[in-house]
Amino acid sequence: MPDKTPHTFTLSDFDFDLPPELIAQHPAPQRSASRLLDGRSWPPADRIFRSLPELLAPGDLMVFNDTRVLKARLFGHKASGGHVELLIERVLQEGEVIAHMKVSKKPAPGAVLHFAGGRQQGGFDAQLLGRWPDAQGALFRLRLTGAADESPWELMQRHGHLPLPPYIERHQDGGHDPDEVEDNERYQTIFARQPGAVAAPTAALHFDAGVMTALAARGVQTAHVTLHVGSGTFQPVKTETIAEHHMHSEWYQVPTATLDAIAACRARGGRVLAIGTTTVRTLESLALTGRTEGETDIFITPGFDFKVVDLLITNFHLPKSTLMMLVSAFAGYAHTMQLYRHAIAERYRFFSYGDATLLARTSAQAHKTGA
User: Fold this and answer.
1) How far apart (Å, rounded) are the C-alpha atoms in residues 268 and 271?
2) Eight-class DSSP state of 205
3) pTM
């Protein structure tokens, strides 16, 4: 159908009414038992995710993000006894980290915070070095010191908790969380290899061994990229004029083998299927800059000219989110909004633990002209 999109988009264009009960609080009983809305055309088809292989063709290339979610949420206390919570955004050298801090009163540089009882009790200490990236920065730089001189990676794995999105209601306060065992398994993808993310590339949570075996039997090729998802993925857009929004930055890497796989896919006439918006952002950043590794703050909105990705699997996203804008850019604004109305009417489950949709790239020219 023609994409009657507005010439200039505002934040309100990406709003919709979502019944709160459709926000998934737990994953489907089995990964591939989630629902899949085949939205490549209209009307869409309601399917189960394990049917994905039959929707693809031999020679297609599936590209996934192999980032692994860190147990980056840490609960501790100040020397005064006040509670403090850290969300580690990235690990630097020499035991240093960059983190968000939640505390009643921010401590001064040089202060030492204690976690899991502190270093003297077998836990670790965190010395506040200052704000980051500058004196007015919203994040904090700290040096972690464990009882056995463990690395920040080891300390997080031993004492941390997975930083679930704010819309998944859990009792994460450092005490007992009855859902933690389930989350530790199901909020990681089966592709997770490279630690560094604070949020999962959730479109890949639907894949299991059975689906992968069926894809291989179908002749679908696979490749991977790495993009360490930051907490900025949940950052709300606060300006009605979306061009004024400042996109967060994330680190990515595209291996040489993946470059070769994409070239081979093009040569044989196959399609590139991105598993999730993080993979889209990585591949399109590569196309824009020519860099196979680095930071990207790419902001994809309707009118964007996609160079690499032909098909996309993604979950259903929040109203007014940058991810909603990316999907609208990829599949067409009017088509995307129509699909979301269908998904709500058919009671699809939304967000990280929710269901998925399969989308095809539309013409960027249609976005620009409204044709």
Assistant:
1) 9
2) G
3) 0.91
- Show the beta-strand stretches assigned E in 250-327: 250-253, 272-275, 293-296, 311-315
| Residue among 364, 367, 361, 371 at smallest CA distance from 333 | 367
How far is Cα 188 from Cα 193, in angstroms, rounded to an integer? 10
Give the percent of the chain with pLDDT over 90: 82
- The CA distance from 327 to 152, in Å, is 35
The number of CA neighbours under 13 Å toward the Cβ of 72 is: 26
DSSP class per residue in 329-369: HHH-HHHHHHHHHHHHHTT--BSTTS-EEEEEPPPHHHHHH
Comparing C-alpha atoms, which of 19, 45, 50, 52 is closest to residue 34? 50
Please, what's the largest Cα pairwise distance for the chain?
A: 67
* CB count in 10 Å sphere of residue 158: 14
Cα Rg of the chain, angstroms? 21
Q: What is the pLDDT of residue 345?
A: 98
**Predicted confidence band of residue 4 (pLDDT cuts 50, 70, 90):** very low
Residue 365 has pLDDT above 70, yes or no: no
The CA–CA distances, whole Å, from 231 to 99, 200, 296 equal: 10, 10, 14
- Indicate the angle between helix axes 322-331 and 277-289, nearest 10 degrees: 70
314-364 pLDDT, tens digit each? 999 999 999 999 999 999 999 999 999 999 999 999 999 999 999 999 964
Total residue length of the chain: 371
User: What 3-state DSSP class applies to 213?
Assistant: helix
Structural contact between residues 325 and 302, judged by C-beta atoms closer than 8 angstroms: yes
Q: Is the dihedral of CA 332, 6, 15, 237 positive or negative?
A: positive
Q: How far is CA 66 from CA 113, 160, 163, 289, 292, in A?
A: 32, 21, 18, 21, 15
Measured from the Cβ of residue 235, the count of other Cβ atoms closer than 10 Å reads 14
pLDDT exceeds cutoff 80 at 366: no
Strand order across the beta sheet in which 250-253 lies: 45-48, 35-38, 356-360, 311-315, 272-275, 61-65, 221-227, 250-253, 293-296
Bridge partners of 357, per DSSP, are: 37, 314
